[in-house]
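Dear Dr. K.,

Following up on our conversation at the group meeting, I've run the structure prediction for Phosphotransferase from Pieris brassicae. I'm pasting the input sequence below exactly as I used it, so you can double-check it against your construct before we proceed with anything downstream. Let me know if the numbering doesn't match what you have in your notebook.
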Amino acid sequence: MGMAINHLPQIREECEVFHMSDKQIREIMSRLHNDLLKGLAKDTHANSIVKCWITYIQDLPNGKERGKFLALDLGGTNFRVLIINLGENHFDMKSKIYAIPTHIMTGTGVALFDHIAECLANFMKENDVYKERLALGFTFSFPLRQLGLTKGLLQRWTKGFSCSGVVGEDVVQGLKDAIARRGDVQIDICAILNDTTGTLMSCAWKNHNCKIGLIVGTGSNACYVEKTENCEIFDGEPGKPELLINTEWGAFGDDGTLDFVRTEFDREVDTKSINPGKQIQEKMISGMYMGELVRLALVKYTRMGLLFGGRGSDLLFQRGSFYTKYVSEIESDKPGDFSSCMDVLEELGLSHATEADMASVRHVCECVSRRAAHLVSAGIATLLNKMNEPRVTVGIDGSVYRFHPHFHTLMCEKIAQLVRPGIQFDLMLSEDGSGRGAALVAAVACRQQLSYA
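The predicted C-alpha cells came back this morning:
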C-alpha cells in the first residue's frame, strides 16, 4: 500500500466555485431588489419572475385573539388538521396527520377535496366539536395567486401532485364544495395562506417585531410586510398602511440572473429535476436539492482521482442517494472527529475512505451549505434594507434551518454584514408555524370580517 496522498488542497481549489464573493453577493442583492420592484409594480407584474403575490392579510395578531379555530395544512404528501383554543397568553392545540394516498395525489381535484373534507369531519367528531360552527384557516403551500383573503387560484402543482381540474381554479371553493357535498359539518373558511405567511403570523403572535416569514426546508420562500403605497397591484380594502407580500422568491434566477454564480452541479440538478428552468434560486438553497449538489461534486472529484483513491460505489453514482440530512450529520462532527462522516460513507458503500477523504467530504458539504446560507442571507438582507425599519424579527421554519448545525450562525454573521447601518434583526425559529399560523390568520380574519359587518 503506497502512502495516501492528501488531496484536500486540490479539493479546496475545486470547491472555490461554490464561494460567492462579497461583490457577487451585493450584485445578487441588487438584482433581487429590482425583481421585487418589478413584481410589485402594475406594468411589470405580469412578466416579473419574482411574483410578489399579495396575501390580503393586513392585520398581524395582536395577542388578543380568543376562541376555538380549525386549521388545515396541506403542503405535501400528507396534511394536518388542527384545533386551536386561544386564551389569555396561551393556546392549547391538538392536531392529527392524515396521509394522502398516491391515487388521490394524481386523481381528480374533486376526490382530493372530498378526502380532505372527510378527514376534517372525522377530526371534528374526535374532538367533540362536530356540532359546532368553527372558523378555519387553510395553509396551502403551492404557488397561489390570491384574489382575496378567501380566494386563491392554484398556479401550478409541485411536489408530486397532479390533481386534475384544480390549476387555475379557486382552491377555497373546491374545499367549500366538498364540505357542502357532505352536509354534516359547519365550517367557515376565513382565510387561505401560504406556509411563509403562516410562519410569520405564528411568530408575530409572540413577537410583535416579526415582519418577515422565511422557509428553508424542502423548498425556499419568504414573505414580508410592505407599505400598501408601494403595492401598485393591490386592489383590496383601502386605508390600511401595510400588507403582507408573498415573494415566491424560489423562482428568482429563472431568467438567468443567477447564472453568474451557478456551477455545473446546479445546472445538472436543474436539468434532471421535474421542473427544469424553474425555481432556480430554490434549487441552490433548499433541502430537496442540497444533498444532490454535494453528491454530484463528490462524483466529479472521485472521477478526477481526488477522492476515495478514485474508487466510488454504486450508491455514490446513484441519483438522490446522498440525503440532505447527511450534510447536517457530517457537519455536526467536532473538528478532528469524523464519526458521523464515517457512518454516512459506510452507508454509501465507501468504507475504503481515508481520514483525508473524510476531511474533503466535510469540506464539500460546508461549501454547499454555506453558499445556501449566504444566498438566503442576501435575500433577507435585501428585504430588511427595502423595509428600512430599525428592528425586525425574522420568523423561520423548515428542516434545513432547523437541523443544520451552523445555518443559523452563518445567517446571523452574513446578514449583519449586508444590512444598512442602524438596522437590527433577530432570527426566530417558528414553533409549528404553518399550523398555528393558519389558525391565527383565521382568528385575525374573523376579527376583520366582524369589524366590516
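Two things stood out to me. DSSP finds 16 helices and 13 strands in the chain. The first helix runs from residue 8 to 14.

Best regards,
J.T.
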